Amino acid sequence: MFVIKCPWCGQRGQKEFTYIGDSNVKRPDPNLASDKEWSDYIFLRKNPKGWHDELWQHTTGCRVIFKVQRNTVTHEIRLTLPLSNKISGAEK
Ligand SMILES: [Zn+2]
Q1: Are 51 and 9 in contact, with CB atoms under 8 Å apart?
Q2: Phi and psi (nearest 5°) for 12?
Q3: Residue 69 Cα distances to 23, 35, 51, 86, 88, angstroms
Q4: Ordered structural domains, the chain, with CATH
Q5: 22 alpha carbon to ligand 1 midpoint, in Å?
Q6: Per-residue confidence at 85, pLDDT binned at 50, 70, 90?
Q7: For the segment 63-81, what is each residue's pLDDT rounded down to a tens digit?
Q8: Structure letter (DSSP) for residue 44
Q9: Which of 10, 57, 61, 65 is the most exposed place for a label (fewest CB within 10 A)?
């Protein structure tokens, strides 16, 4: 287990949170996307080793979804931000 700092509630154990997904996935325009582009958006995700920009929800707390920059190897978290803030790409 690791600790995540909710931008509103402070540090809490990981069990209070739910992983939502990659925060860098861009939703294509459903009126313009091909079937393959839409399928890729729905089903394909990267599985990076190292720093990753993610969305987490504080499901047993304030229920807010926010951004987390987490190392997928060590589970170190170096940044948590409200959704309105932009994370500038994970470093390798
Ligand atoms: Zn919270």
Answers
A1: no
A2: -145, 160
A3: 9, 31, 7, 11, 10
A4: 3-82 (3.30.2270.10)
A5: 19
A6: confident
A7: 999 999 999 999 999 999 9
A8: -
A9: 10
Query: Alpha-carbon distance 35 to 38, whole Å?
Result: 5
Question: Which residue is listed with tokens 């992983």?
Answer: 19
Inter-CA distances, 9 with 1, 26, 85, 86, Å: 18, 28, 17, 20
CA of residue 17 to ligand 1 center, whole Å? 9
pTM: 0.83
21 pLDDT exceeds 60? yes
Look at residue 91 and tell me whether its pLDDT is greater than 70.
no
Q: What's the gap in Å between 47 CA and the centre of ligand 1? A: 26
DSSP 8-class letter at 28:
P
